[in-house]
Amino acid sequence: MAKVLATLRQHWKKSTFGACLLGWGGHWLYGKHCDNLLRRAACQEAQAFGNQLIPATMPLKKATVFLNPAACKGKAGNLFEKNAAPILHLSGLDVTVVKTDYEGQAKKLLELMENTDLIIIAGGDGTVQEVLHEPGLLRVIVGLRPRRAAFSKIPIGFIPLGKTCSLSHTLYPESTNQVQHITNATLAILKGETVPLDVLQIKGEKEQPVFAVSGLRWGSYRDAGVKVSKYWYLGPLKTKAAHFFSTFKEWPQKHQAALMYLGPTERPPEEPEEKSRPPLHVRLYRRLRSYWLSPKGFPKEVAPEEWEELKLSTVELCIATQNRQLDLTRTEDFMDICIEAESVSKGQFVHRGSQKMRDPHVCLEGSQHIQASRCILQLPEGTEGFFGIDNEEYEAMPVEVKLLPRKLRFFCDPRMREQLLQAAVQ
Fold first, then answer.
1. pLDDT tens, position by position, 15-41
2. Which domain holds residue 233?
3. Does residue 6 lie in a domain region?
């Protein structure tokens, strides 16, 4: 023993390095063991759903999974196979996985949706963009394509596998453990609790409409945030460095535009879901009854819409849905328009940029806050730059933004739904 201690003392540098390496290895192995325990517990919970008896005439529920293997720097496929796929298969679902290996491959959606009971998006914000926007799911739901009545009732699940997953903050509790976060999200789909989410329809003069679940950003904070990854070598200082160096190009950084908007609209009551289609004679009776009882005469004049107009000069403009802070009992539908103050110092710009990286749609102190159901953003000729729509880049142009309230139903963790209801009561 004395000889061993003497050897360790004599080679203390190697001994210290070996001890650190051994400690790190032990910590890594313990983490892997804890992850396996989490997976096992989640699979046991999923198996309870799979063991439930169903009538022989009832078909299995069919789930279509849209998986982006390129998400999370190419790790998403492995994360899905290890953490989410076993839970889905043990639950008794008939699972079909569509891998979006290249852009636009998710256009198979409309062909598969006729034979699916639920849609699952496995990836990040970019995967949500591709599945909801490119194939036309939202165009079906808002009525730009036929068969919207059947498609609009399909619930959507989201398994966060990407680098940025904005929806996970709304649907699931926060977790620092990635495995736990993924398994919780997958189990939430099986439990069946859903929440309605608003959607923004963003349409240019000639382009097809683009849809946003989180919101639209245009300004200097967004432009600087995109460049944060270039300063990876600065570690925790990379965010501040990106905003600091962006002040060298142009200062003050002002974005000028004209904004027209309409105020909030009253929220109509939710329509009760019909379990089955009524018989033909019942439908004919309802149609005739509504025709004969409808008031005859000249149609009432519709009051003109009262548009508010505003000239703005701002560091950043943000148009966001209420999905980040859901209120299930609110009586009005509106989107939040945040106009950041233009008079900020360089120090304030760097500090506020860090806050914007943590919460992109936060409305900071001193900003102008507007609630609107619809708005038109007019940009000066020659305006360059990009919009950030759900963390995806689009060329900046004049657009009309319209709120589509409660257009999608997403699966959520029952604990999150309970918290939302309790917050609304208080």
1. 787 888 888 888 888 888 898 999 999
2. 212-267+305-405
3. no
